[in-house]
Design brief:
- It is a single chain.
- With 163 residues, this protein is α+β, with helices and mostly antiparallel strands.
- The chain folds into two domains: 116 residues, GAF domain (Beta-Lactamase, 2-Layer Sandwich); 29 residues.
- Strands 2-1-5-4-3 form a five-stranded antiparallel β-sheet, with helices on both faces.
- A hairpin with a 5-residue loop joins strand 1 and strand 2.
- Helix 1 runs antiparallel to helix 3 and helix 3 packs antiparallel against helix 4.
- This is Transcriptional regulator.
């Protein structure tokens, strides 16, 4: 499962930009913008994101720095972390001194949404495995190996009694 999809990034950008009144960019783990309020930037390389990925920490870009980093504007770029791994970068355009308070909230909201999406995906998979397990048990000629596989997936331990 790709944890940071373009669809999710687009939703995050749309909802965040609406509330913060600032441009938001989300870059993948290669530094390419996958979602932006400024649609013309999608698909372009963001060197600020590359710096975040290299340094594994937040990178602040002021107006002067933006001249040296291709594809950047003044703002704050933060790593998006999921299960202790950087899965992307979120960039918030604006005067870094004025958007610092918003940047951490946007990062936190993004990471919480990723976790929520992941756990929903996992729960749906668990429910589907349970359904398959029950269906297989009810078959007149069920597959022993498939039942064993599903038992392992679901961490089920059935006892077998023999006389």
């Amino acid at each position: 499962m790709d944890i940071l999809t373009e669809e999710m990034a687009t939703l995050i950008v749309k909802e965040t930009a609406k509330r913060t009144k600032t441009n938001i960019n989300i870059m993948n783990f290669n530094g390419v913008i996958i979602a932006s309020f400024d649609k013309s930037r999608i698909g372009t390389l963001h060197e600020g994101a590359i710096e975040v990925l290299k340094q594994e920490k937040t990178v602040v870009i002021n107006q002067k720095d933006s001249l040296h980093f291709k594809g950047t504007q003044a703002g704050i770029n933060l790593p998006i972390i999921f299960q202790d791994n950087i899965v992307g970068v979120i960039g918030i355009t604006g005067n870094p001194n004025q958007i610092t308070h918003v940047a951490d909230l946007v990062k936190m909201s993004t990471e919480l949404l990723l976790y929520q999406n992941y756990f929903t995906y996992e729960l749906e998979g668990q429910i589907r495995s349970q359904e398959l397990f029950i269906e297989e048990l009810l078959k007149s000629e069920s597959s022993k190996s498939f039942i064993q596989y599903l038992m392992k997936q679901l961490n089920i331990n059935l006892l077998t009694y023999r006389k």
